[in-house]
Amino acid sequence: MMNTFNILRPLAWRNLWRNPRRTGITLIVVVVGLWSVLTFSALLGAWAASSRDEALGLLIGQGQIHAAGYMDDPNIDHLMPPASPELTAVLNGDMVENWVERLEVPAVVQSEYKTLPITILGVDPAGELEISTLPSKIVAGRYLTSLDDDGVIIGLNLAKRLKTELGRRVILMSLGSDGYLAQQSFDVVGIFDADQSFEDNNVFTGRSLAQHYLGLEDEISQIAFTVPLDENLPMVMEQITAAAPDLDSREWRKLSVMLAAMDTSMGSIIYVWLGIMIVMISIGIINTQLMAVFERTQEFGLMRALGLKPKMVLILVTFESTLLIGVGVLLAVVLALMTVYALSDGIDLSAFAQALEEFQQAQVLYPTVNTSDFIIFPLIIWLLGILVALWPAYRAQKVSPVEAMRNAT
Amino acid sequence: MQPDTAKNPIVTCRNVEKTFGKGDLAVHALRGINLEIMAGDFATLAGPSGSGKTTLLNMIGALDHPTKGEVIIEGKALSGLSKAQLSDLRLHKIGFIFQAYNLIPVFSALENVEFVLQLQQVPKVERRERAITALTEVGLAGMENRRPGAMSGGQQQRVAVARALVSKPSIVLADEPTANLDSKTTAELMALMSKLNSELGITFVIGTHDPRVMQHSKRHIEMIDGKIESDIRS
Fold first, then answer.
1. Are the beta carbons of B87 and A310 separated by less than 8 Å?
2. Does B172 have pLDDT greater than 90?
3. Which listed site, A113, A153, B123, B180, has its alpha carbon 20 to 30 Å from B223?
4. Host domain of residue A139
5. Where are the alpha helices (H) located in chain B, listed in sequence order?
6. From B167, which residue of chain A is nearest by alpha-carbon distance?
7. Which of A246, A281, A312 is the last residue of a domain?
8. Between chains, do A302 and B91 touch, taking CB under 8 Å as contact?
């Protein structure tokens, strides 16, 4: 085997470069194909991560805990007490980064001109600073300052629809703990800019103030938490369930099915693209390798006449393809790494800010190298490339030495 | 035919026939060839185009199978050998020289000559020594590292001769080896092959219709219409 390798190695390598144009075309096909797959994968990954982080960072977190029944009927009847000592111990553990308690109830907001349905979120402003990106999205006025802050912050589009503005008052109305309508007027102290749906549906105020206005004591409707490492999430969920078996704890994939579906579909898209590239690369390899075999029919016949066994011709041509595709794969990986590295400081999409906002997408994408993609995709291309090159190699193996004699004389 | 009974034949053809095509389109390239090539022969296979010279060389070189009859090389009948066995036989017993040189273009002269030895799994040091010796014998000392593209036709044919000889084959088959060479180079090449035959006892069978080649021949086999018309030793 080593002898075969030693015989064929220099021959295969030099044969690669005897027709630089053809080798160049094949290399370009492999390099561009694989580079596009890897770069596209990094960009889609960045897009998915950005979209996920943007949505999770705004309000959802990596997971939430609610009272049983709240998710099916999110009203004031399905509240829960603050975190128990057992649950607090889990949430203060190493794997959880931050957590906050919120009161979230359906309500209506009324301005001088309009009444619209919304959700009131009573929040802990200090805690939200650690867990939510909302404070950074204030475009006018200020964020909430304390649990007792009696101002509200509303979305940009909601302000437009209500025909209200910073410094004006709005009235929030909701069902109170006593079963009667609770209402209170609030100053609009801040306006935030997020996606339109989020702007239209959420109004924020201090949690204690909201509890007081609704006639509650310390009841809350949700605990949101962040887990920096997604792989730790299942373990955290298990611990939470064990610490609070009567509560309804869910990770983000179950809280936002759309977001989870989008996360999965990004993976599907890249595999579709990979499939298209494999077909293109395969056609390119078969085409160029068949041409190479046809052009060298006489040479294969000569080598057979000199005593080279048929299977060694097969190995030679396969080896040439292996080297050729291998060089292309290496170049593509290096090029893709360089591309991703060059873009790793961020791709500024602020020119499309409005459209991105609707996709809950950050304005700057940060592509990163996904190690498994950079190993698996090149291997797939390499192995399938070798596989499709077996056909030209088989043709070369079938060359008759007598044909070479006939052509040579 | 005048077999040399003092030696065993290297090649024996028994009633060899070769037909290409079928029915009305059938071409009978060889019609009952009986021939023995003895060790040390320097035979020319002559005849007009279409007389069957190349077809017979292909049979003797284990490159093609007869339609009828048997080819035996050093006592081994070729019929029934697999492709791999035939490859082995060619590798160890037969040297080829082609009209168009047929060197491997990506190899240097030395590597072309070494290639056959490498297939025979000759150790590297011995391989290198034997290849250099073979190239020196054909007058190409100092040109070992040139690639075929950088050599004249005569030089390339000398490399082909060195390649054919380096593996110490039982027989060297040459099909029109001088067809692409000028008179001077032809004379040099034939002198070289005659010398190798007389000094080293290498057996040559040369298919040709070049009188300059025939004049070096010790055995002249004339073919017409797929048959041996005459077989004369000088």
1. yes
2. yes
3. B180
4. 68-246
5. 53-60, 83-93, 109-119, 124-137, 153-166, 183-200, 211-214
6. A306
7. A246
8. no
What distance in Å separates the CA atoms of residue A66 and residue A246, rounded to the nearest whole number?
Answer: 10
Contact call for A307 and B92, based on CB within 8 A = yes
CB contacts, 8 Å: B92 with chain A? 307
Could B118 and A7 be called an inter-chain contact, meaning their C-beta atoms sit closer than 8 Å? yes
User: Would you give the DSSP letter of residue A369?
Assistant: -
A255 lies in some domain: no
| Range of the structural domain that residue B90 is part of | 39-57+82-233
Helix, strand, coil percentages, rounded to 5, for chain B: 35, 25, 35
Residues A74 and A121 grouped into a single domain: yes
| Residues facing B72 on adjacent strands | B12, B77
How many domains, in total, are found in chain B?
1
Report which secondary-structure segment, H or E, holds A216.
none
- Alpha-carbon distances, residue B233 vs A1, B3, B34, B152, B217 (angstroms): 47, 10, 16, 34, 9
Tokens of A209: 């103030």
Domain membership of residue B32 (yes or no) is no
Structural domain includes residue A271: yes
Of B57, B96, B106, the CB nearest to A14: B106
In this structure, are A42 and A98 located in the same domain? no
Distance of alpha carbon B170 from alpha carbon A51, whole angstroms: 77
**Has residue B92 got a pLDDT over 80?**
yes
A326 and A227 share a domain? Answer: no
Residue B151 lies in a domain: yes
Same domain for A307 and A375? yes
Report the number of distinct structural domains present in chain A: 2
When CB atoms are compared, the residue of A10, A306, A409 closest to B90 is: A306
CATH number at residue B52: 3.40.50.300
Q: Do B220 and B232 meet the contact criterion of CB atoms below 8 Å apart?
A: yes
Question: Is A253 a member of any domain?
Answer: no
ipTM of this predicted complex? 0.86
Q: Regarding beta strands B42-46 and B203-207, do their DSSP bridges make them parallel or antiparallel, or are they unpaired?
A: parallel
Q: Is B14 domain-assigned?
A: no
Interface probe, candidates A3, A298, A402, chain B, greatest B C-beta count within 10 A: A402
For A16, nearest residue in chain B (alpha carbons): B106
Q: Are residues A234 and A87 in the same domain?
A: yes
Segment A204-233, tens digit of pLDDT: 999 999 999 999 999 999 999 999 888 899
In a domain, A229, yes or no: yes
* Chain B residues closer than 8 Å to A306 by CB: 90-91, 96, 115-116, 119, 163
**Does A73 share its domain with A172?**
yes
**Closest by alpha carbon to A192, among A121, A102, A104, A112?**
A121
* Residue tagged 């144009």 (tokens): A21
Using CB atoms, pick whichever of A3, A298, A310 lies closest to residue B83: A310
Question: Which chain B residues in 23-52 lie under 8 Å from chain A, judged by CB atoms?
Answer: none
Q: pLDDT of A98-122, one tens digit each?
A: 999 999 999 999 999 999 999 999 9
CB A152 within 8 A of CB A203: yes
Q: Is B75 among the domain residues?
A: no
What integer pLDDT is reported at residue B4 of this predicted model?
45
From the list B227, B230, B232, B228, the residue with the least C-alpha distance to B217 is B232
Contact B84 A308 (CB under 8 A): no
Residue after which a domain boundary falls, among A191, A219, A246: A246
Residues of A in contact with B119 (CB under 8 A): 7, 306-308
Q: What does residue B73 show for φ and ψ, rounded to 5 degrees?
A: -115, 120
Using one digit for the tens of pLDDT, what is the confidence trace for A359-376? 666 667 788 888 988 999
